[in-house]
Design goal:
Blueprint lengths: L8 H10 L7 H31 L6 H5 L2
Length: 69
């Protein structure tokens, strides 16, 4: 069942700018934003896991090595 929500004019204008075409619904725009956020989160988690693995394997340099201190 559809639900009506109240949003500010500013948010409505921002969502309108994100539409790929004039007939795209605000719901579609919001779902696209959520999907982008979830994808980004997955990529960040993957990069963190990769970095931890490299650290455990000793594949890193210290700041002293980088900056020569």
């Amino acid at each position: 069942m559809p639900t009506t929500i109240q949003i500010s004019d500013e948010l409505r204008d921002t969502l309108k700018k994100r539409k790929l075409h004039s007939k795209e619904s605000y719901e579609s725009v919001i779902w696209d934003l959520i999907e982008d956020q979830l994808t980004l989160k997955d990529e960040i988690v993957d990069e963190i896991e990769k970095g931890l693995k490299e650290y455990r394997e000793g594949k890193f340099v210290t700041s002293d090595e980088v900056f020569g201190e």
